[in-house]
Amino acid sequence: MHDTIVFTRGVPPTDAFPTAQIAECLATAVESDAAVVLQYGQQPGYAPLRALLAAEYGVNDNEIMVANGSLQLQDLLAAHLVRPGATVLTEQPSYDRAITTFRRRGARVVGIPLERDGLDVTRLEAEVKRQTPAFLYTVPDFQNPAGVTTSLEKRRAILEIADRYGFWVIEDIPYRLLRYRGDSVPMMRAINPDRVITITSFSKLLSPGMRVGYMVAPSSLAAAVTKEGENTYLSPVLPTQAAVAEFIRRGWMAPNIERLKELYRPRWEAMMSAVRRYLKGVVASEPDGGFFVSVTLPADANTRNLVARAKEIGLVLTEGQAFFADPDEGPMPDGERFVRLPFCAVTPEQIDEGMRRLASLL
Amino acid sequence: MHDTIVFTRGVPPTDAFPTAQIAECLATAVESDAAVVLQYGQQPGYAPLRALLAAEYGVNDNEIMVANGSLQLQDLLAAHLVRPGATVLTEQPSYDRAITTFRRRGARVVGIPLERDGLDVTRLEAEVKRQTPAFLYTVPDFQNPAGVTTSLEKRRAILEIADRYGFWVIEDIPYRLLRYRGDSVPMMRAINPDRVITITSFSKLLSPGMRVGYMVAPSSLAAAVTKEGENTYLSPVLPTQAAVAEFIRRGWMAPNIERLKELYRPRWEAMMSAVRRYLKGVVASEPDGGFFVSVTLPADANTRNLVARAKEIGLVLTEGQAFFADPDEGPMPDGERFVRLPFCAVTPEQIDEGMRRLASLL
């Protein structure tokens, strides 16, 4: 009963991994193309995987770059795009590691408030008028950490602003294919591929430990970021990329994604119903997919030292502040009241018990 | 007869890869530890591999960090150690990619002339007196590109200076175990482990495409560089690291190194005898192992446009200038006359014919 319940990391559970299939694909990929897979080279990523992804996205092979995970790509992109004094915009809240990465490359990171249907477009334009950013970083589908999906109208409005003022939009879409209800909203690159850098990975669809992430971008940018990569790690790790190509070639990806949705859907339902049951009247995201529900606790709730008090009763939470881009400007009341609730790596029973504990603290 | 002969890259030939064994180790490693190998985590590297390496070096596990290749480690180390305005010292000539990496992290890179038994210690001390460097980067065994091995006396002298003035020495030792004659010189870390960061990889012993490189360093430094890595790529690629651990655990590493030495020794002999035959009187390194012989052509040899002229007769050479740290200060006569001759990926017949062609140009 008092087992610790962990509501912190957006990681897949072990039973999400198609272990035997991955092992088979690794062995086959190495045996069938050793001269390439075990050698230096393939700086933009393993060519057959790039070809498969190019076909999927309807682009040329030279618009695809595959690297050692998508955070690595974000770091290389920031190294290439961020000049001294540059601003980078993110949603607020946003993925904490992306914020850190952009800061480490010298950017001033400014958060644009996230609403129920995507970021506040008026605030975006006001900020852009002040200083044209190097890029806007957005997670448009089932956002990490909030669970929000950006509406088609807002996607169009954001890209209209990006085109008018001249900056890149990075859409990071690792959760996009894990939709539990409703229809997909078009990707931002479908609206304006000349302004959009799409980044995603196989971490949520196959395995994070393989670290296979990729970027779809105009070929000149892909070439420049590939050069940054070559100067950083010489060549990407190839056996894992080749295994992903083999996995796709065998037709195993679509059924695997269906299996994952069957695994995660009951957890998603359990989290949404536990929020309704235990946190009556609290503002919650109601995501259509992905890994996260989030809640913003009411101003009169007892949120002081929430993470520490939760730990005492066996509930592990992430500090909400971590997802807000501007903690340097003092604590944000929104950050203190923000709770991210990842549901994929916990069972429905754990979700119910965890939410009961959370409610008992407020 | 006029097949192109490639004397450029220090890469292993395809038949150097123990392909079937690597495939088997990948599959076994993933199947036997999927919850770790396919998941996020293990930021300092796959724990069982770190334990095996720690035992090999007689250090604690927390003194080992494994990353996606050793160039990645050099980049992370430079990110951590190079402050604005800092100097980094290298041998001259040195590994071109290391020079580029340190520059990209903001270092002023200064080359210390390399002699037949290691760098010029007097010049090292003079340079250090001018400004204490962040670190000295050295390849003490069968150096890339020159093939030189630093003598024990010079290793001691270098570390005495490093200790007196207070800077790190990075010893990069990827070729060390590929010795074709004579006895090993002690590693620099055996002389003073508090001043030395040892970097190496399995690229030359197993496969470059797997990108498994590691660092042996004091635990506080290993922890700081691990944090740099986590902020850059979140987690390292794990299946390939786990496969290396499995390869070692099965006792396959030592026999594989013996096999590689049997493969490379005739090529090494062919290169040394071809140098003697075709380049009479020319100063050549006579390495005891590794991948490279190098020659410094006489001042009166016709070295103008050597690389371009070689290409016309089907011989691919690397510009010697690339290995010299100070090309910004104008062309170096030494660089123009320096020719690196990698012998591992070419057969004895190709070596003989390639050297005949080179001699015909001078």
UniProtKB/TrEMBL annotation, chains A, B:
The keyword Nucleus belongs to this UniProt entry's keyword annotation: no
Cofactors (names): pyridoxal 5'-phosphate
Which is one GO molecular function term here?
pyridoxal phosphate binding
The record places domain Aminotransferase class I/classII large at: 8-358
Q: Does the keyword Lipoprotein apply?
A: no
Please, which domain of life does this record's source organism belong to? Bacteria
Cross-referenced InterPro entries, in alphabetical order?
A: Aminotransferase_I/II_large, Class-I_PLP-dep_aminotransf, PyrdxlP-dep_Trfase, PyrdxlP-dep_Trfase_major, PyrdxlP-dep_Trfase_small
Pfam families named among the record's database cross-references:
Aminotran_1_2 (PF00155)
Q: For this UniProt record, give its keywords in alphabetical order, as a comma-separated list.
A: Aminotransferase, Pyridoxal phosphate, Transferase
Q: Tell me the GO BP annotations in alphabetical order.
A: alpha-amino acid metabolic process
Q: For this UniProt entry, which segments traverse the membrane?
A: none
Q: What is this protein called?
A: Putative transcriptional regulator, GntR family
Report the source organism.
Answer: Roseiflexus castenholzii (strain DSM 13941 / HLO8)
